[in-house]
Amino acid sequence: MSERIDQIDLRILEILKKNADLPNKVLAEQVGLSPSACLRRVAHLKKTGAIQRIVAVIDPACLNRKLTAVVTVKFERHGHQFRQNFFEQLKKESAVSQCYMVAGEVGSILILNIADMDEYTELADRLFNEDDNVSAFTSFMVMSQLK
Q1: Which residues lie across from 140 on neighbouring strands?
Q2: Is the pTM for the entire model greater than 0.90?
Q3: SS3 for 13?
Q4: Which CATH fold topology does 60-141 show?
Q5: For the domain bounded by 7-47, which CATH number is listed?
Q6: What is the pLDDT of residues 33-85, one digit of tens each?
Q7: Inter-helix orientation angle 7-18/24-31, to 10°
Q8: Is the C-alpha dihedral spanning 12, 14, 15, 19 positive or negative?
Q9: Residue boundaries of the structural domains of the chain
Q10: Residue 10 gets which letter from DSSP?
Q11: DSSP secondary structure letters along 42-99
């Protein structure tokens, strides 16, 4: 994203971050623009990549995935080619809602939405225990979501 973002664009992004389903007319009123000018700005923010995509944030419990786990993963080798198989496997897993490559003590952090501990155990065996490049993983079961 090399395009310059002005204060109106920043305000649009802040509002859409909280509610991307807001009607354009309401958004325009909140930022002080005409609906057509607001629509053009939102289209431009999408085109330039400032708005990467519009998604629905769904309660995992509605999908019978009531258990959330945060998992840190350490890799044996850190080159891109060594992690590629792991990341390709993650893309296929519906239980993986987020994945971050990070710098520091661990190489990756995952957010899992799972039905129960049986599903978690099966997933952990498949993703972590059977991958020769995963040297260790630590799981944290989420008690409640604060934000």
Answers
A1: 70
A2: no
A3: helix
A4: Alpha-Beta Plaits (3.30.70)
A5: 1.10.10.10
A6: 999 999 999 999 999 999 999 988 888 888 889 999 999 999 998 778 878 88
A7: 130
A8: positive
A9: 7-47, 60-141
A10: H
A11: HHHHHHTTSS--------GGGGT--EEEEEEEEES--SHHHHHHHHHHHHT-TTEEEE
